[in-house]
Amino acid sequence: xxxxxxxxxxxxxxxxxxxASAQTITGPVSATxxxxxxxxxxxxxxxxxxxxxxxxxxxxxDGIDTPERRGKCDAEKQLAESAKxxxxxxxxxxxxxxxxxxxxxxxxxxxxxxxASDLAGDWATSxxxxxxxxxxHGRGEKADWCNWTN
Length: 150
Prior knowledge:
Elements: H1 5-23, E1 24-25, E2 29-38, E3 41-49, E4 52-61, E5 64-65, H2 74-90, E6 96-104, E7 110-117, E8 121-122, H3 123-129, E9 134-135
Parallel strand pairs: 4-7
Antiparallel strand pairs: 1-6, 2-3, 2-6, 3-4, 5-9, 6-7, 7-8
């Protein structure tokens, strides 16, 4: 086979396209809630291919920040508990969810994704409307939950 500039260019474009698409799975990826960790993290079993399930993968809901369970003050810890309970009610154990725009998180073993269900809608929207989350994309200041007015 003769190697030509067109063949090289085609190969490079195919490689770049494959690499880029491997970084984000647009989905939807069907999953089942195993447990809610807090207001912005859920553990799921994800059905990645027919008959192939990834068990107990931690999913950080993309685009939001919620109070931490081990927060800096009692107010933050109480807000964190409220966020966890709310999301546990909307996305109970065993419920079906769809993951979209799945990509590596900054911590090993956890992914970032948009999470939604037919019954509860979009996770990030639901908890933000309840004023138990703020928009956050990994940069900038986080909310001061200790002085939060709900």
